[in-house]
Amino acid sequence: MSEKKVVLITGSFSGNGQSIARLLAQRGFTVFGTSRNPSSVQTIPDVEVLSLDVHLDESVNACVKTLFEKAGRIDILVNNAGYVLRGAVEEITLEQAKAQFETNFFGVARMVKAVLPIMRRQGNGQIINISSAVGLAPLPFLGFYSASKFALEGYTETLRHEVKPFQIRVSLVEPGFIKTNLLHYMQYGTDLVSDYDPWQQRASKAYRQYVEKALEPAQVAECVLHVIESRSPKLRYTVGKDASRIFRLRRLLPESLFEQGARRFLHLDVKK
What we know:
The protein is built from 8 helices and 9 strands. By secondary structure, the protein is α/β, with parallel strands linked by helices.
């Protein structure tokens, strides 16, 4: 059995997940990535791909079982799989909202439930959940995405308390704007309401501008490596000056001022 730490990364063949998988493989970890269609993904050196659909209990359990049979242990789980659902809250159908939570929140819960028995038997382990700056500071027209990350934040903090006696460490990584293809795979509300168009257009333009100036996914990967190598990992790690600044202002400013700042950030109240 290999003495190298065994890592399982969900959503590992694009964006942040791909950078995380690549970096950890380069640093000598035994890395397993996942995809719903393993035959269609681009190969990452020294990363073995497993089939996984985080929506399905049987797929999650089969993935973890296969990994354990191959490696004999699971040291680190990085929950990265997710997508962005955009639109005014009124424009999002309940089916779309439920699908957002199935991936971004319940997908994480399924993975954690599957690996915890193994980690408890081992007497150690580490779980890193990739959240977002909007997990504590929501932005307009990302309501259900923000809500799914808010849920992930509360879930992760609770989990950290519960598994600490078993020497299982739990952390959140909270990126701000990152240059990934997340925007290209963004999904949109289907119950369109034209009344929101002027404000949605301003927000969309601002989002594009911030992404163009954003950090590369490699910065998220470096943060994950830092969490893994830390002797005493914290609960939360922000990635990017924008995320750090937003969280700091959220703590310091009265709600009314923070709200004004968020609207100014996206040019929502600019007069024509």
